[in-house]
Amino acid sequence: MTTKDERLQFLEAMGDVEPIRKPDRADLDGGRQVTPGQLERQRAAVLEKTRDRNPLTATDVAWLGPQDELSFKRDGIQHGVFKKVRLGQYPIEAQLDLHRMTVDEARQEVFNFIRECLRRGVRSGLIKHGKGERNPDRIATIKSYVNQWLPQLEDVMAFHSAQPKHGGTGAVYVMLRKSPEERERNRERFSG
Fold first, then answer.
1. Is domain 71-186 in CATH 3.30.1370.110, yes or no?
2. d(CA 106, CA 84)
């Protein structure tokens, strides 16, 4: 708390000080012209944000019912490996739940899930899509789309409807391609 005397001393000491007439700041707005190159970069940045990198398409979907099984394997997948996928004998390293999502939301989530699994070196996962039993038309909408989307992703090697303990026909086991690093480790481990 300042006293009256201290205030008077301050004012007396500051009596011959002149205020700065022009603020000591850079003028950020004055004289700036946007070049055509800057406009093009701004336009490209906006387009880049809105461009959809998700390759999953949804045309001519084969509609599935609540009890329909999903099953897919790429050429070259050994029968024994696919059997283990089908029986849920690989550890579930990651899960995705699509319940209560729209088709567009599910499409983006499936794409992001697979991409993130690959980034982390995950080989097997579980996607819960639901059975569609509550739909009045008895069509499993999200399940039908998942069945179409997964084969479109080259890194999905196989998938099959889950065992009852993991959701049965309302979920699907997904096996992903090995990363190049993992393939090299296997080569070294089993080459002699």
1. yes
2. 26
